[in-house]
């Protein structure tokens, strides 16, 4: 399957403004790029790139005053397979986890494990472990939070989403990540493209999506607490401890978002 | 100058319990170790070590049920110089920062930059930049928070410490780190030994200390918002985004802290 | 397309012997794993895993005396697309390369840039840059070296392969990598599965394959100096500066390789 | 003790030339900097910095045509203690080494472990392990190689130095590193300032020095196969697998070294 993905984001600035962007497709999908995934700005400015500690491809630039557009448009090969479901994937004992997974057991900006650990053990301590435990967490999160674009708030944490019972896809991901970590399952936040492939078209304007990954049976598996079903065509852009690590843009100065368009569509072979 | 540092920490466990410890002297002080800095457990268990993403030396072990002691005792060479003061150290424009410093501009578990950014700019936006700005943040934090061991709370964040106006050394560090980041100065949390060298003896039982580092003039500088004066003999153990990254121990199971002793004393040459 | 990949490797040891293995599919293909990619040993020993500095998934174990088998067998989703050809991909000026790419300009164990730099500039200095330059290097390497399994030697370097004009796939990769680096194009060594998919069946027993990646137009592209044609179904296991970084096994003691089988076959959907 | 260190290096270029420099004091000595360790160029060009995978502080710049000088001059606090000698430091079994140390067992550009492993076992296989084994390797290297500035060759490897029996400090380090690795002791190359402190003044013009570090008893220890005695005042600039990783400058274009001065002197308190 081939998927065409891209975006156009326009900000207005009043002064030269440094900008970090995490808007490239993740390097782990590099081998699937059928056309270049190049970020272009208008007006043109030099863009330098670097890999952060999580392996994400980041861009740095200084935007001039005025309207400033960032665009990309790429064709990506995809297996067309839905998210792998592997119910037999086991939970590792903490002492058996690889060192690099341990950081994903700790608290982070929007995932306050210290505030949800008792609740987590009350809910999931008597249930099964491994894949079934993560699925139970996904089910709980899916039920607990009511989806609505009006519920977005940039400072909202997992604990707050759990209390308020309302949120957007990032809140679903934060809550499920936090509960997994409380139950000693490494979990990390993921963001990227997720088009309406193999599912009815969502009437809302397309946005980037957030989901999460849990470490079970020796590897990371994608889970999606908002949709709570295997999906086709996730194309990851960033991974990190939570949304603070993978903001699509970090703008260091006053700005206004003028327009925002995202696409991710299957292309006829 | 030679400084003898060490600790004894005893936990009680009721079942075999995985444990992460960040109790070694930081690798950046390895060349100053005059005797080995070896962590020994009683009863003896195998301890494996790894470096985390921040360069800290971490230990993993599984503690058996019963009382479990961790101890270390080492002799460290030190220049005996107080923290360097470099008022001419300049603040870098965001676009001139090295890539690796950028993560220390973002929010983290206990440093909610998104909740303090307006306050930070109100307080420090009109003042000087660079070293003087960090010093102004240190002064503000030092005044804002009243120190008291009774004010410790493991879930307390910078925002909460700012509201409650009470805290311990980690809260001073978190608040100053957060304000620096809001003002586009990379700042990171540091923890380690800080004995009463060159200052009157603190009558309270000795504990590990927390301070912070700010990136100015092309390097990281130590600042201490609790003491607000240059100190002699800081021996760093861990550095990270905040206390969530550098917990001295992370225990994965029920436990009770039975005793806790820390020392850091100048030794006669 | 689905590809079934796996191996069985049997060593004989005479004493307990520590072993490093880089025999998992690379984490960048984790999202394509339709079944677990678990390494199993016979007799069973505990295997611990870690990520090295290049992002490869490595395994550590201690093999007991006697015959010791390592096996894996996994089903992998693949786009079925041949290696991307992007002749317009440009060479970056050295000053525009991301920091993380710079290490792939330097010399390494089997890639003696210092010994081939003059030759490289004589051959490719007047030609085109970017994709065409890498293709010219691939063509030259493909012509220069005569392939033959009898020409394998574990200590053979790019310089030696160039002199001797004989080698196996790793020598093709080393020479092309070295020449690219000499011409200021970051290049890294890659190894993994490459089945006979879309090409006539190779009558020789299947082995793991080695190829290389060059950094052009903002991303890494796969090139194969041995086959010198786009191939379908590369499944990368390891990437590094050269073969020294990505040995499939590093055995720390006397041993004998008893048997070795590798497979990578398209599976009917 | 305070040590004043610095350098002036002047190249001549004929065209704008990208340059990598590893000329800062290593971040592990940051806390000892009493004055800024800033690299200044003449004519002035922008210099950007980054940390490489080994934790070294690297600088990037583009030098203009003509004479181009790089200078630094800093005051560094030092304990004044000679290199620590710890004869009881044990060699770790390979299976007990931390993951991050394993890369320092493998071959690298100038350290061909595969070509020296048999020789190493013949020489050191029957002797003691741990500290005494490293000291035996240092003694052997110190005797094996005759020092002389005329013996420097940028392509010279450990194997070649062993055969030719002549070399400079980097060859001593490469040979000792290689032999340690062959004996399963992680070893890495180090370079930096080493003034004539506590030893008779060397009449030769001062240069940067190379030594090595071996991993014993849970930490890295400095050894110096050229001088074969504990020294005072080593100030490390770079660490890596061998000299290929820590070249003080990597110049991407034709150039001529016009002058070169280094200093490292004890300063009266």
From TrEMBL, chains A, B, C, D:
It comes from the Bacteria. Transmembrane segments: none annotated. Residues 161-227 form the Transglutaminase-like domain. Gene3D superfamilies: 2.60.40.2250, 3.10.620.30. Pfam families: Transglut_core. PANTHER family: BLL5557 PROTEIN, BLR5614 PROTEIN-RELATED. This is Transglutaminase family protein. It comes from Chelatococcus sambhunathii. The lineage of its organism: Bacteria, Pseudomonadati, Pseudomonadota, Alphaproteobacteria, Hyphomicrobiales.
């Amino acid at each position: 399957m081939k998927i065409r993905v891209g975006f156009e984001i326009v900000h207005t600035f009043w002064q030269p403004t440094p900008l970090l962007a995490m808007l490239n497709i993740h390097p782990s999908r590099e081998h699937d790029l059928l056309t270049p995934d190049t970020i272009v700005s208008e007006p043109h400015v030099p863009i330098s790139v670097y890999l952060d500690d999580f392996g994400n491809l980041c861009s740095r630039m200084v935007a001039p005053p005025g309207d400033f557009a960032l665009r990309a448009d790429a064709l990506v090969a995809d297996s067309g397979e839905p998210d792998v479901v592997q119910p037999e994937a086991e939970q590792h004992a903490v002492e058996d986890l690889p060192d690099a997974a341990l950081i994903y057991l700790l608290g982070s900006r929007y995932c306050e494990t210290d505030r949800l650990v008792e609740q987590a053990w009350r809910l999931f301590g008597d249930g099964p472990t491994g894949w079934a435990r993560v699925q139970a967490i996904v089910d709980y999160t899916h039920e607990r939070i009511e989806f609505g674009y009006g519920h977005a708030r940039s400072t909202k944490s997992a604990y707050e989403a759990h209390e308020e019972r309302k949120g957007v896809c990032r809140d679903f991901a934060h809550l499920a990540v936090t509960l997994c970590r409380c139950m000693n399952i490494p979990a990390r936040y993921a963001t990227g493209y997720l088009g309406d492939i193999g599912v009815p078209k969502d009437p809302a304007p397309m946005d980037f999506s957030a989901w999460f990954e849990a470490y079970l049976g020796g590897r990371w598996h994608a889970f999606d607490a908002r949709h709570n079903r295997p999906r086709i065509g996730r194309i990851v852009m960033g991974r990190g401890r939570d949304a603070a690590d993978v903001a699509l843009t970090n703008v260091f100065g006053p700005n206004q978002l003028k327009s925002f368009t995202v696409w991710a569509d299957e292309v006829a072979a």
